[in-house]
Amino acid sequence: MNNKKQTAVVVIPTYNEVDSIGKMIDHLFKKTFPQIKNWHCKLLVVDDTSPDGTYKVVQEKQKKYKDLYLLLNKEKAGIGNAYVKGFKEAMNKLDADTIIEFDSDFQHPPETIPAMLKEIENGADYVLGSRKIKGGSNPKGWGFKRVFFSEVGGFTARFILFFPFKNFFKITDPTTGLKASRVKGFVNKMDMDNLYTKSFAYKLEFLFKMVLLGAKIKEIPLQFGLRTVGESKIEPKTAADTLKTVLHVRLYDDPFVKKFLKFGTVGFIGYLVNATLLQLVANLGQPEWMAWGVSTEAAIISNFTLNNIWTFKSDKIKGLSALTKKFLQFNFTSAGALIIQTVVGTIGVSVFGAQYRQLLLPFIILFLVLPYNWIMYNKIIWKKK
Ligand SMILES: Nc1nc2c(ncn2[C@@H]2O[C@H](COP(=O)(O)OP(=O)(O)O)[C@@H](O)[C@H]2O)c(=O)[nH]1
Ligand SMILES: [Mg+2]
Question: For domain 6-253, which architecture applies?
Answer without folding.
Answer: Alpha-Beta Complex (3.90)
